[in-house]
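Dear support,

We are seeing what looks like truncated structure output for some complexes. This example has two components. We would appreciate it if you could run it in full and send us the complete token output so we can diff it against ours.
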Amino acid sequence: MEFTVQIRVTLRPSILDPQGKATHHALEQLGFEGIRSVRMGKFIALRVEARSEEEAREMAAAVCGKLLANPVMEDFEIEDAVPTVA
Amino acid sequence: MEFTVQIRVTLRPSILDPQGKATHHALEQLGFEGIRSVRMGKFIALRVEARSEEEAREMAAAVCGKLLANPVMEDFEIEDAVPTVA
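Here is the complete output from our reference environment:
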């Protein structure tokens, strides 16, 4: 059974985010007011073959721990795991 | 009042995702089995000064339409907007 797992990878709060800073600056240049900060992360949608939602989540966590997230600088969160809608 | 708005930017389904393809390939090389596809997107956390949750969401949508998402290739979704927890 195929599951779609949605994953969010974010920089740890203590880590500087130059991409977010640059985006913040660009927004100010464009005239947007009231933006206090911008932090950029990754969103990943993984389609996996698994027997259960739990197994799909475990596969996603293993994949994040091994490749998708850098454990020194990033946190990951599995937002959702649902059977893939064709 | 400060709100934290969480935004997800994804490639439209019809758009090829070379970064996702490369990640998929890397996972296969690492021995992960059962991965069917990987799609990469962006996750953005915006802190904005607004009078209401609705205003915070509107600001985030304006920012996405103007800079954060490419309307030709990407979709954006405002996942959540909540008062910032200090």
